[in-house]
């Protein structure tokens, strides 16, 4: 997929027609946080590649919600139970319908992140959330040096052509979790693993050195 082509130079389109499959670095991390045979919903599931992995590797009972028609079509071609809809409004599921609710690199793209998090807590015992960390040191340097929206955070897009409407840092995420309430962070990992000094710095100062954190939260109960 060439993001410099006219078709992909605006990631607000959410067009998966030419991207029916993908394998992202955080998928393995997310899978490692999920027990086998679990009930899983992926909110903003894109083309369904993560759900397909969980279904095959974890024998999970999976479903999803996706706003893009092409994304829903790609999911259904994989035999996945996915419906079209928004994820930052009341979800059409009873309380505790799932063991895990996932929102992978999508929370920054919705209008009401606080509603999304609250609904995830309502429908699932465990939440898995990942996002690009706006506090990453390269973004700070770019903002300081150029005085504009940091380019490293935009992944090749421009500030006006990205679906990222609520950029957040790890510190911002902790604040949101506290604001919503009834949740605790059980585990955290990062999708850009390294070694040596850089890994040490990622561990002691995650808000500065982690690009893509993955959090496992629980609704104030033992998993």
Key structural traits:
223 residues, alpha/beta, 7 strands, 32% helix, globular, disordered N terminus
Structure description:
This protein is an alpha/beta fold and 223 residues long. The chain has 8 helices and 7 strands, in the order αβαβαββαβααβααβ. The chain has helices at residues 25-32, 49-57, 69-77, 113-123, 137-146, 170-180, 196-204, 206-209; strands at 39-43, 61-66, 81-84, 98-104, 124-130, 184-190, 213-218. A 7-stranded mixed β-sheet has the order 3-2-1-4-5-7-6, sandwiched between helices. The longest helix is centred in the middle third of the chain and has 11 residues, at 113-123. The protein is globular, with a radius of gyration of 17 Å. It starts with 24 loop residues before the first helix and ends in a 5-residue tail after the last strand. 34% of the residues are buried.
């Amino acid at each position: 997929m060439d993001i410099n082509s006219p078709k992909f130079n605006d990631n607000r389109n959410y067009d998966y027609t030419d991207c029916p499959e993908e394998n992202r670095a955080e998928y393995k991390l997310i899978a490692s946080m999920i027990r086998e045979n679990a009930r899983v919903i992926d909110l903003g599931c894109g083309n369904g590649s993560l759900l397909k992995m969980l279904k095959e590797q974890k024998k999970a009972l999976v479903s999803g919600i996706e706003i893009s028609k092409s994304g829903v079509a790609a999911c259904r071609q994989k035999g996945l139970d996915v419906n079209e809809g928004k994820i930052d409004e009341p979800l059409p599921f009873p309380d505790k319908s799932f063991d895990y609710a996932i929102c992978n690199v999508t929370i920054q793209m919705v209008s009401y992140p606080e509603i999304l998090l609250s609904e995830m807590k309502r429908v699932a015992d465990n939440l898995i959330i990942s996002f690009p960390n706006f506090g990453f040191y390269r973004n700070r340097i770019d903002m300081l040096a150029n005085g504009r929206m940091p380019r490293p955070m935009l992944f090749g897009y421009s500030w006006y052509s990205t679906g990222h409407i609520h950029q957040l840092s790890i510190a911002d995420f902790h604040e949101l979790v506290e604001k919503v309430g009834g949740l605790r962070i059980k585990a955290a990992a990062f999708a850009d693993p390294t070694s040596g000094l850089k890994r040490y710095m990622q561990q002691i100062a995650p808000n500065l050195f982690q690009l893509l954190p993955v959090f496992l939260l629980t609704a104030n109960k033992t998993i």
